[in-house]
Input
Amino acid sequence: MLAQGDAATPASIRLVTPGPHDREAIAAAIRLGNAARATLGHMPFSAYDDAAAKGTLLMAYADDHAVGYALYALARRRVRLSHLCVDPPRRGRGIARLLVERISDLHRDHLGIAARCRRDYRLGEMWIRLGFAQRGERPGRGSSGEPLIDWWRDHDHPNLLSADSDTVLVRAAIDMNVVRDLTEAGRTNADESKALLAPHLVGLLEIVRTAALNTEIDRLDSDLRAQCTDRVQTFPSVRSDPAARAHIIDELQRHTRPLDPANPRDTQDLLDLQHVGDAIAANLNVLVTNDQELIRVYREVAERHGLRIMRPADVVIHIDELAHAEAYRPASLLDTGYVERRLRSGENQTIEALRTHLSGERPRELQSTVNRLAVSGAQRMGIYQPTGELVAAYATTESSGVLRVPLLRVANQPLADTLARQLLFRLRQSARDGALPMIQITDPHLSPQARLAAVDDGFQETDGTLYGYAIAAVGPAAEVERAAISAARASGLPEPAPLRSGMPAVAAAELERVWWPAKIIDSELPTYLIPIRQPFSTQLLGVPASIFPRHDALGISREHVYYRSPGGTRPQAPARLLWYMSKGGTTTQQPAAIIACSQLDAVVTAPPDDLYDRFQHLGVWDRNTVHGIARDGYAQALRFTNTEIFPRPVSRQTFRRLALAHGGPAAPPQQPTRIAATLFAAIYQEGRAR
Output
């Protein structure tokens, strides 16, 4: 098979699919084929007639002269290209490309185009320029045994090996040294490159083949060529517009010329240039290489095009950053000015601010820990204050029913204690969401604020590890006890003391706090339905979300205060609270619903000035508003913690249905209203359902 060239597209070329009675066109194809028989091989004349009858003979004309043709067949959803021929004087003018692209356009419903060509014809670079990639090779049938190369131009239909475009966040090209690391044993960087195939990167990182990589593989003259071809079969090929690619390569050369006027010095330098150009032209965002010189020369100009050139280890270590930057922006932490996002690669120096000096942690020890956690697949998160500084970081992994926390740090700043308590609560939420009943904090250099917060949160220390229960059971004491015993046994911890039905409210509240999110339904712990208007719900609970951030200290705190008039029902602490957000006015963002559950720690009745002075940092009302709800010189504050926003608010209609089923008040509450434990359990489970 022979075809050459894909230079500038000839505007005067006309493509025609001749019919079976177009003898002149069929004869012209035969003449062109006979002239190129040395590389095309023998084709019976009847094959041309058969192709014309089936509409699989494509002719190229310049004016009225036949200058090329393609003869192919359709079988099993594939196009089998038998001949691709261009008149020798016309080669190098893009005629072969026109023929191939027209075939792709006509048969886009087929999986792709297959071709086969002898290795000794040295036409590999031509096939690659036409958008083909090596698919394998086999011994030839001739006396020389010269191998036949199988080529494939994919039509990008999904298959069993296709990555899910909804989950893949990063598409990265690799160069030849990485392919050899993945193929050959004993290479220096093999372990580093093989980390690209780590299970935790599946679905996040898709490795692709560019034309430059296919060219490098094609130039190998040993058994290694076949091995590398096999190795990259699972990596899809990407194509780019030739004109755009040429323009980009020209720009890259203009950039590098002042740095090194002699570059490219040799074939390898030229291939390095093509690797970068191909990756940019294909709109990839990462090129992976172990070639430090390639990184040095092209990193700056590549980044201007949105391409990062990185070593394999850096890609693995910083995949969170790459995925984060491509998928979503930093998330506001509890609707405050603080944000939470995955740690980025350039923050190794920034994270130094979280080093625990008191424990003797060395300067590079923390950076090494963070990198090691990334390679292992741990989720590494950072908390940033509104001015952009990193003020906290944590990492988590999941294993055998345990949420492991190998890193938990808080910077020494004004909200350090509040932030540490919030991080502990977020870890409990993560454990609950992952159905992990135990949390283990194993950071040997745990921040002092985090340690104090963990101990206050009910964590117990054994052999340098802090253990905390996260029991996601909602039921009688016996059911909660079974879940806690199972978690303790799985972690090799002593079993907790037996629980009994009807336990006092104080005991039940303490267990629900230190085993959060456990709910012990057959205890004496009461539950109250609390009405709250939407504007105050937005500020106090963060629901509905506002375009304006909440006050930082208020939003980050696990503790809050709800002011009310002391008349009517007086809630008794400790208790559970369910928040009924009432319907608002014309600016209502959400309908009335039960939106959250909290733990009531204290009820304080006092003069409004005393309440305000004591709790102003935990509530949303100003002094005048607190005075406005006072009765007989007194107002009331409900101090609550551990607010859990329901993923599915319980609508008024659903609440009414549940209340009727469990014998509770069906009308929306106008004041704190006590409800039965069974109704609480039904509402809670409805709100937690996803």
